[in-house]
Model the fold of this input.
Amino acid sequence: MREWYAKHLGLADKGQGAMLPWRERDDPQKEHVTVWTVFPASTDYIPAAQPFMVNYIVDDLDALLGRLQQEGVKIDAKRMNASYGRFAWIYDLDGNKIELWQPMSPKP
Done:
């Protein structure tokens, strides 16, 4: 599947995801990256019945999770901290898992 997307759509994913850089429209100095990847059918990262997962970059993960909790959104108890950011997961009304990513701030 990775080869198909690389060949036909130019999404070169060698196992860590295709990195798609972009800049904020209102502040072009702020650079971000969207990660696109194909997971193997055997993954436990997303539910087996869910064919894909969207990852949203957020500015303040804790504040957003607090607001979503107040609004009754289903929030996964699991959290992940990595050298490139913090992660949490929520579920939409159909039970689709959605990833929230707060990238690490660049060091001054």
